[in-house]
Amino acid sequence: MIGPSVTRGPAAALAPQLAQAAERLRAAGVASPRADAEQLAAFALGISRSRLVGVDELPAQAAAHLDELVGRRARREPLQHLTGLAGFRYLDLAVGPGVFIPRPETESVVGWAIAALTSPPALTSPSVPSLEPRGPVCVDLCAGSGAITLSLAGEVPGARVHAVEVDPAALDWLRRNVAASRLPVTVHEADVTAAPTASLARLTGSVDLIVSNPPYLPDADRDEVEPEVGEHDPPQALWGGADGLDVVRAVVALAARLLRPGGLLVVEHADGHGAAAPGLLRADGRWVDVADHPDLAGRDRFVSGRRQAGGGERATAEEG
Ligand SMILES: C[S@@+](CC[C@H](N)C(=O)[O-])C[C@H]1O[C@@H](n2cnc3c(N)ncnc32)[C@H](O)[C@@H]1O
């Protein structure tokens, strides 16, 4: 008797290798073993993950490459370091050793900031002037690979974006991503905890939006982070002092100086800072409409506030 014909789907050709790779990654404690195995197989084959379904064989060279990649991932090298790319909103950013890998939670921080910038000011905020027709001036403090910078530059019509970063290795990645994007971005090599450089000082009182994802983990968490983070993200991108808020405080002070009256500040923070971060802005006295916001997982994730129109000059002058 002739049984029903079984069509061997193209994806079945890779099934054993993918299952084996996923098992190695699972055993090594990788959080998303199957997804990572598929990403690495696609990378080894030089195709996108969605095209794996059309593959009917794994050539020996690609199989050897996949084996090497899975071994490195099992030793907890970040997936993005192996592929050299990190997806962020509409971007594929070049990343590798020396730069922080952009995180999904920051995508919603940027999305919220863009929506707030491009929607009409709320009636409860009469102090907020409308955007000038030439487009807003935006600043990304602690820019890393340029994830926030390039999202703003690509998604906000007419935006003129300034990226501020202090770490030379991160600056190399930032400049590379900015150059590849051909978007209008000015890169500033500057320390947000120090007095503004001459080029940054020129923006005083003129900025419409500042977004920042600074280092914000409390130093005490050093033993708790995953190997991908603790051994591969640059320490300067992670650690924010005893309470995690050292750089956040500097960002708030610099933002108060750079923003125009009514300008908007949006700062990502640790999930334990849902009260402390807005508390910093309220205690500072130069902010209105201060609010904290959750990420998609419902964890406290970022604070927003508008630079007070009028008032606050005393505090600005005190900063020099
Ligand atoms: C958490 S990472 C965020 C990078 C990027 N904005 C993102 O969301 O993917 C923080 C970045 O701040 C930079 N940074 C740390 N301290 C800084 C400082 N004092 N001044 C400027 N940049 C700083 C680090 O080098 C790192 O690139």
UniProtKB/TrEMBL annotation:
Residues reported to bind substrate: 213-216
Keywords: Methyltransferase, S-adenosyl-L-methionine, Transferase
PROSITE patterns named in the record: N6_MTASE (PS00092)
UniProt superkingdom: Bacteria
Residue ranges of every copy of the Release factor glutamine methyltransferase N-terminal domain listed in the record: 18-84
General function of this protein: Methylates the class 1 translation termination release factors RF1/PrfA and RF2/PrfB on the glutamine residue of the universally conserved GGQ motif.
Protein source organism: Candidatus Frankia alpina
Keyword Methyltransferase: yes
One example GO MF annotation: peptide chain release factor N(5)-glutamine methyltransferase activity
Protein name stated in the entry: Release factor glutamine methyltransferase
Gene3D superfamilies according to UniProt: DNA helicase RuvA subunit, C-terminal domain, Vaccinia Virus protein VP39
Protein residues bound to S-adenosyl-L-methionine: 165, 213
